[in-house]
Amino acid sequence: MRKLSLKLGIIFFITLFCIETFMMFFLHTSLTNSRVEEELTSLQARGNSHRTILERNFDKETLAHIVLMESEEDTDVVITNISGTILASSNPHPEIKDYINQLENTVPYNGEILQRHWQNEKYIATISPIQKQQRTVGYVFMFQNTVSIHALMERLNKHFLIVGFVSGLVTIAVIIVLSRKLAHPLIQMKEATMKMSNGDFSVTLSSNGRDELSDLAIAIQHLSDELNHLRQDRKDFLSSIAHELRTPLTFIKGYADILYKRNLTEQDRQKYLGIIIEETNRLSHLIRELFELAKMDENSFIIEKECLQLNEFLENIRGKLSPAFQEKQLHFNVHCEEGLTLMADAARLEQILMNLLKNALSYCSSGDVISVIAKRQDDLVSILVKDTGKGIPKKDLPHIFERFYRVEKSRSRSLGGVGLGLSIVKELVQAHGGEITAQSKENKGTTFILTFKGVKKYENNTTH
Ligand SMILES: Nc1ncnc2c1ncn2[C@@H]1O[C@H](COP(=O)(O)OP(=O)(O)OP(=O)(O)O)[C@@H](O)[C@H]1O
Ligand SMILES: [Mg+2]
Fold first, then answer.
1. Which residue from 49, 84, 88 is spatially nearest to 71, judged by alpha carbons?
2. Would the CB of 446 count as within 6 Å of ligand 1?
3. Which residue ranges traverse the bilayer (predicted)?
4. Best label site of 46, 371, 375, 401, fewest CB within 10 Å?
5. Over the stretch 88-121, which tens digit does the pLDDT of each residue have?
6. Rounded CA gap, 327 and 416, in Å?
């Protein structure tokens, strides 16, 4: 059986059918019993009341009067003496003899039910003893035809059948609606996941409600959106890589062809070889950065944190970069709070700062000031890389950490940038448990703020 709705429906139906049958049976039995009990009690009460009259006047006239009264009703009365001789009767009931013979002990004064098997017998019957001075002198037998009880039961059965049939139909209808309602979202989700496994992530699941099924639908929808996003990202990334690789290769091939085929002057040869070397450098820079990203995506690079004395660390970087800054006539300052330490991977932190400072170097012009400021704020250490360069337009600022994002494609390309530096920086900072944000104003400058947690102040040459 494959259909969930069918399975659910059958389980529901069997359960409800059992409950309904049990309840109907219980109701039917108790209704029937109480109805028959009522008839018997009233029959006995009638017999007892005749008996009371007879105890007062046990004469022919009273007997005749009682018989006359009963002949008008659908009950019968038979009055006998102690030995079973019929004194008066509204209808002949020869079985009286049997009843008298079967009486084992004395009949209780309030009477007895002699026949309660209305299903198989023609009559139900009761007996009430007539007593005079504490001695039984006769019996009042009351009979009631079971035809009326049978008729009543038939009516009752008919009603039960109708009610049973209608409630069965209603149950089936409710089950169909319910199981469809339950199974429908599950079927939708199954189809959605099948679609996703076939590579189609354009899944739309409705999730109205606040139950577990809606939560599941929301989770699947979220998953499909994420996968869709990832696929789009991968596609964009691959096409960006292809594009970035193609451009330098086209240059290299074009100039290599020229060098190979034509007789060129030494000056042109030098120029073209220079372009080829520049593009080759660019290619290896791109491949190096891609390799870094691949390692980060695989989580296969390890951050080995050590306690760094930031002052020393930043001075070292200044030493490495100063010549480049001087060459471009840029002012480069480092300010670090005394004794400040940071738990970080030295090589990775250097990579982060080098990337940011190389950007500053590329995107500032002569006379601009570049500062690195390291300070402590409560339990955090902030490192600010500030420049007074041309800044980043407001619309580009939210995207600069994206892979291959460059503000001015042509300009940054001419500066050798491929747009991967900041995305690598961001991943490295996050791998340290830190955060990076950027603030920038066009023509005023840019500030990158790195924030790292879990630092302790370096005091008295002690590492805490
Ligand atoms: N200090 C800065 N001043 C102005 N613009 C900047 C600065 N830093 C980054 N940018 C802008 O952000 C873009 C993204 O920077 P990112 O470092 O990721 O790439 P890139 O420098 O172009 O290439 P790569 O660093 O991969 O060689 C740059 O292209 C540049 O337009
Ligand atoms: Mg860069």
1. 88
2. yes
3. 6-27, 159-179
4. 375
5. 888 887 777 777 777 766 788 888 888 777 888 8
6. 17
